[in-house]
Every structure is written in C-alpha cells, then in structure tokens.
Amino acid sequence: MSNTADQPKLLGFTGQHDVPDPEGLRLAMRREVVAMRDLLGKRMIAITSAAAGADGVFLKTCVELRIPAIVILPYPEERFANDYEDAEEWAMTRRLCGVALAKYVAPGGHEAPEACQLVSRLLLEWADAFLFVWNGEPQEGAGCTGETVEEARDLGIPSRIIDVASYAAKWEIPPDPSRKARHGFDTRADLLDFLDARFSEQG
C-alpha cells in the first residue's frame, strides 16, 4: 500500500463556454494548475470534458505543464464537433484530446443537456479537488458550471474558483492534502484499468 503522497490524485475541471479574454485566462489557469499540483502531489492527473471555451484552455495548460489528462466527452467526437462554432478551436481540441492520457465517451447515448450533466456527475464522483472558471451567477441549466459548483460544495469536494471576469481565484472549500485519493487506487495503471472497465461496461 502506497502512502497518500504517492497516490495519483485527480483534479477535476469545468468552466464556462464564454471566455472574454483567453490570454488572461491562460495566465491565470497556469498559475492555478501549478498551485493545485503542489497541493495534490506530483502524480496529479487532470480529469475534464472538452467543451468549447475554458475546457480547451485547461487542456492546453495541462499539456504545456506535462500534466496527464483524462478526457470524458458527452458524446462521440463526430457529434461533439457540432457544439463548436469555431473550426480552428475544434481542431485544437481534437489535437489536445489526441494526446490525453485516456479519452472516454459518457455512456447512454444521451444528448445535451443530459449528456453534459452525466459527465459532470462522473467528474464529481472521482475528483479529489476541482478548479472552476465561473462568473458566480446562479446555475443556468443541467450540467452547467454553476450546477457543478453547487454539487461539489454539497459533496464537500475542495474547490477553487477562477472568476471569469477578473481571473482572481478563491477557495470555495479548501483542500486537505493528507486525504487519500477518492478513487482508492495506489497507481495510475490501476486507476486506468478501473476506468477502462467502467466505461466498457456502460458503453
């Protein structure tokens, strides 16, 4: 049995589609992801979807920082492309998904918003901490960022919120670095084996 510091802990992420200043967010994101890695340990793995907007900035930041990422899409790529208005942004997202540690599609064949809500629930099930990009406004629909913030709060998951306007960040719930990983596995391989089986069973 490995100690807590050796376990691969998961940093969940979700954020808004509308990003007024992508460069400002990129700088804030890099700062916050580095700080999260310091808290969760050098074996930290990111887990997120890949929606247009903040998700792509997060995935790109993880690649730049050499942080492995697990991507869960709400539906297959050929359908997911329809959610993107910018073809270049979608092309970048596909490349980022292509270099992810693992990529899965949420089971059930649901459409939005149910499929997006299911992805959020899966992230909430496994994440040891969350990073959000959010404007602080009340939830605007199933699977939205505001809803996920509220559910993370209800579950007591440590959460840090980047304000989408100012890019200042604050803790919603601070973390306890001594806590064991919620997924319960001691190695990355064991975690991935579990996820492979989980998505295969529900596919």
Walk me through what this model shows.
The chain is an alpha/beta fold. The chain has one domain (4-202): Rossmann fold. The chain is 42% helix and 17% strand. It has 7 helices and 7 strands, in the order E-H-E-H-E-H-H-E-H-E-H-E-E-H. It has a 7-stranded mixed β-sheet with strand order 4-3-2-1-5-6-7, with helices on both faces. Strand 6 (159-163) and strand 7 (169-173) form a beta hairpin. It starts with 9 loop residues before the first strand and ends with a helix. The relative contact order is 0.19.
How large is the radius of gyration? 16 Å
- What kind of oligomer do you see? single chain
| Tally of contiguous helical segments | 7
Under CATH at level 1, the class stands as: Alpha Beta
Taking the alpha carbons of the first and last residues, their distance comes to: 31 Å
Approximate helicity band = 40-55%
Q: What value does the average pLDDT take?
A: 91
Biggest beta sheet summary:
7 strands, mixed
Pattern of helices and strands:
EHEHEHHEHEHEEH
Beta content comes to 15-25%
Residue runs with pLDDT of under 50 for 5 or more positions: none
Query: What is the third-level CATH name, the topology?
Result: Rossmann fold
